């Protein structure tokens, strides 16, 4: 047996593949057995093959720093993460339930606002959110669906229990990396697929296509669907192109589209203007329409909000969906589930302290060294403080920020994130990870089998974002193996 | 299925740049061999390569002497020079990067690999030692990508605009290959009857047309028959006539094609009236110059008709 596996010790954390007494978990047994018998050289060869595949497939993401765009190869760990299908089933149902409730909430907020009137959610929390868009009031998208594509971040605590850490309802990214990770694993560890029955991922693009098609304002004929990208310099451009191609949709930039006097959206083509039914937009609300939001936006389409409000085009995710993405609103999701669906939440949320609430705020300020403090409306791991890892000065800075603007901060206990064996440098060591499944919500609701596992490549780190030095792993949902 | 004007434009340019990379590699390859074959003193100078690409002003910004090293660095590895192989490949990749959604997946992978190859080897291949292998690899990889497109891309707009870009660039580059011959032999003091056929033969080789020429015309390569063959042999895939006919085929089914077709047919008429026998080399050069100007006008018309259309 390769000796780094002998020394493998996840400590008190829940490990995805190895039990506390050092044995592989049942679902991971064939995988770990195979990997244990590979020498370092063989593992290194697999990693080189993966790096080569990534380079050849041109899988990259862009980081904007110091005024330059750097195209980086996608950091990938060759050791997959394995989850039993039975276990995943519960998570899947919990995610679908959550997505239904969140969509009810958004639809309610922009229409009757009954949840506010009934005192379940304090109105000021919603109406003062920087992601609440009064311009969207009174719109009723098809199927009551607003957040059509949701990426929810899940973590597991030291007992292996799943929690939802946050819901990304604006323009969640990462799904193409989830798909490409599987392709890479198939290329570099093909022998593993003989011993496993792994739920396939490759129908995601066709699921996405049917979700988007179900939003089309026209029921006749094949709907014209486009993916709206800010362009090649966006960090997720690779994914935009990937999704457009795998759906057979047009990948458009803002100036490829225009809204004519009849309030319909058209794209400029070599055959003249063609009407567009569904816009899967991968640009933020604020850049979507310079007539309504930021006037300086060159990425958007002037008049597209007019067309959307007139019901002439569907926009996914619908403008204004971000209101449910706010980390303060997050604390109320279990109440939403009870309120709209009359069900108990199937998936746990992380205990969240709201700094607007005096009692919570005092607790947060007294326990900054134990908590993770997050800004309410940021994504990508920016502007967050991990208390136990933060310096005194950083904690003092956050105490000041919280007092100045309590609405903008929430705090959560520092979770003992689960780990999984990761091939770093020349050994296999435990690294912390999370999981981002994707939930599609149109006429029907559908959850990806697994999702994108993101792994903090730095020892002990809890920050998994790719913009902050995180990597990723292929994620397997496996049915009973022999 | 229609196509975004922006996408059509990028595909067109991707094809132009790929063709440019391949054709420049062919030209340098053939020229290097020719220089090695011809006795010192009779060999034409390296500046011809820069001249026929109309790139002297750019060259002279950074270089004083037209020596082999400078000229080849300029044509192979100079990123500021839009005629250089490395620049063309990088530009082709940028255009594919933003149009991968309409191309077979392998096309992106292979264009990306071609770019990574050029990035690593362009500068190292300026010298004679590595040049041969580099140029052959570039030509082979460009042909592989072309082959992939021909054998997997559905015959729709994507294919159409790629073919238009490729043939327009190829027609232009083929006229430039003839121009090398005209330029190399232009001055009387250099004119040398034993050198003459060598030059024309190496140019034929640069178009992969030597075998076809032998079968059609014979083993002796003379100026007039070679020029005629390369300009007007409709069966030869790199001849100007073949390129124009192919473009006509692709323009015909497009909407709003009147202006472009008219220009194309004018060019075809000019070509059919051309008489290679009675031309002096100066006249040949002038004819080629005018013909290149026609191709530039045609390019402009394609741009305004299908790419920059203001439909709002």
Structure description:
Chain A is an alpha+beta fold. Chain A has helices at residues 3-6, 29-36, 40-57, 85-109, 114-117, 123-127, 175-188, 204-213, 237-247, 285-288, 304-309, 327-330, 333-341, 358-366, 392-404; strands at 60-65, 68-73, 76-84, 149-156, 162-168, 197-198, 225-228, 250-252, 257-259, 265-267, 274-275, 278-281, 314-316, 348-349, 353-354, 371-375, 385-386, 409-413, 419-424, 427-436, 438-441, 445-447, 452-456, 470-479. Chain A folds into three domains: 1-197 and 324-350 and 415-482, no CATH class; 218-312, Rossmann fold; 351-413, Dna Ligase, domain 1 (2-Layer Sandwich), CATH 3.30.1490. Chain A contains 15 helices and 24 strands. In chain A, helix 3 packs across helix 7 (175-188) and helix 4 crosses helix 13. Chain B has one domain. Chain B has 14 helices and no strands. Chain B has helices at residues 5-37, 47-52, 56-62, 68-76, 85-97, 105-121, 128-152, 157-184, 196-206, 210-216, 223-232, 240-251, 258-273, 281-307. The two termini of chain B are 21 Å apart. The chains are: A alpha+beta (482), B mainly alpha (312). Chain A binds chain B through residues 55-58, 231-232, 241-242, 244-245, 249-253, 255-256, 258, 260, 266-274, and chain B through 2-8, 94, 97-98, 100-102, 105, 108-109, 112-113, 116, 157, 161, 254-255, 306, 309, 311-312.
